[in-house]
Design brief:
- The protein has 423 residues and is an alpha/beta fold.
- 42% of the residues lie in helices and 13% in strands.
- The strands form four sheets. It has a seven-stranded mixed beta sheet with strand order 2-10-9-8-5-3-4, sandwiched between helices.
- The mean pLDDT is 94.
- It binds 4'-deoxy-4'-aminopyridoxal-5'-phosphate.
Length: 423
């Protein structure tokens, strides 16, 4: 029986192939009468199966993805409005509530990287002419100033010395002085390695009629976040760091107050793609589901799996794992005579570690050696820290002892070549 079926399949395939060849030979134009220029092969695309070298992504991101998450992305596509896919979106929203530690109904993933979450938050929470105080202690604050300005907001750029965080007193003074619609803070400033405390900030914001917006791209899942208990009104994040997924999803949450602000806008959100009144309706925020843009089907599978991994490990266990990796890294780096860029230990971000480049050491040569010899990515500084520091990410799937040891071996080798360590 099987042999007969195989034969009939073969016959059918051969007939189809002959028909296809005949129709190709007869191809002149999709529309009768239109001229048909010769096809140019000048820019013929790539051929052959894609191959990628194995790298240990120990910079500030992306981090290596968990293979379980990559496997989820290779599952068959579903339609973006099919009920089984909508159920996966529900699961993502639920997993995000756990991750943010919030009972809010309003969670989703923006289709894009962390910047999509950033721009979505700014575009929706601010109306032209409204004021935002940006707690700017690195490149992310600078970008938020730029974005808010583009959306017509009045920007107050509140700065602090590079490598330090804002005190509650400084933030409270700025809130009282400016009474802004929004206060922006970056919990994990990846350009400097600073961890901004949020304790008490939500309360100070509420007293001044301000919404608190927090960037957690480099920190969510790696350090504590208690959105409801801390009174954080809006958060955005990224998939490719402590959540161990590829880049392409920006988790976002709003509490009731933040949603109310958007619902009572006097002006339309200036970006159609990022308008939460519309995107929220695709994610079921308002009791129905309507098509806005095609959901990132495989990416949402990845997020579903990433959030399952977070739930299975437990938030606290995850935070502890990140902290232990950070401690093990610093035990090794200190032994080599290296020092943290962030002076105050309580301001040090465990997920992105910033290391001072010692006098006379060529930081770029150390990075190059790590990549060439160990396939390990170690990054240099960015923005205000360019040329002064190295950055080592210990995030998600990479926050584990074997990766820490590999990074330490790469530093030891590079610093020995530089003559900083004795051979
Ligand atoms: N915020 C922070 C703190 C980041 O570290 C990053 C990425 N390095 C971003 C925002 C922007 O994210 P993305 O590159 O994914 O757009």
């Amino acid at each position: 029986m099987a042999a007969i079926l195989r034969k009939s399949h073969q016959r059918l395939a051969s007939q189809l192939s002959q028909q296809f060849s005949r129709s190709m030979a007869a191809f002149t134009s999709a529309r009768p009468g239109e001229p048909t220029p010769a096809i140019s092969d000048a820019h013929k695309g790539p051929t052959g199966v894609l191959e990628i070298p194995q790298r240990f992504l120990m910079g500030p991101g992306p981090a290596n993805a968990d293979p379980r998450i990559l496997a989820a992305q290779s599952l068959p596509l579903l339609g973006h409005m099919h009920p089984p896919f909508l159920k996966i979106m529900d699961e993502v929203q639920q997993g995000l509530r756990y991750l943010f530690q919030s009972d809010t109904k309003y969670t989703l993933c923006a289709s894009g990287t962390g910047h999509a979450g950033m721009e979505m938050a700014i575009a929706n929470l601010l109306e032209p002419g409204e004021k935002i105080v940006v707690g700017n202690n690195g490149i992310w604050g600078t970008r938020v100033c730029d974005m808010a300005d583009r959306f017509g907001a009045e920007v107050v750029n509140l700065q602090t010395a590079t490598g330090t965080s804002f005190s509650l007193a400084e933030l409270t003074a700025a809130l009282e002085q400016h009474k802004p619609a929004v206060l922006f803070l970056c919990q994990g400033e990846s350009s400097t390695g600073v961890h901004q405390s949020l304790a008490g900030v939500g309360e100070a914001c509420a007293k001044n009629g301000t919404l608190l917006l927090v960037d957690t791209v480099c920190s969510l899942g790696g350090v504590p976040m208690y959105a409801d208990a801390w009174g954080v009104d809006a958060i955005y994040s990224g998939s490719q760091k402590c959540l161990s997924a590829p880049p392409g999803a920006a988790p976002l949450m709003l509490n009731d107050k933040a949603l109310q602000k958007i619902k009572s806008r006097k002006t339309k959100v200036r970006s159609y793609y990022l308008d939460l009144n519309l995107v929220g309706d695709y994610w079921g925020w308002f009791g129905s589901r309507s098509y806005h843009h095609t959901g990132m089907v495989s990416m949402w599978y990845a997020m579903r799996e990433a959030l399952a991994i977070v739930s299975e490990e437990g938030l606290e266990a995850g935070w502890v794992r990140h902290e232990q990796a950070h401690k093990a890294l610093w035990a090794g780096l200190s032994e080599m005579g290296l020092h943290p860029f962030v002076a105050d230990p309580k301001d040090r971000l465990v997920t992105v570690n910033t290391i001072k480049v010692p006098e006379g050491v060529d930081w770029a040569a150390v990075c190059k050696n790590a990549m060439d010899k160990f396939s390990v990515e170690i990054a240099g500084g960015l923005g205000p820290t360019a040329g002064q520091i190295w950055r080592v990410g210990l995030m998600g799937y990479n926050a584990k002892p074997a990766n820490v040891e590999l990074v330490l071996a790469a530093f030891k080798d590079g610093l020995t070549q530089q003559g900083f360590l004795k051979a």
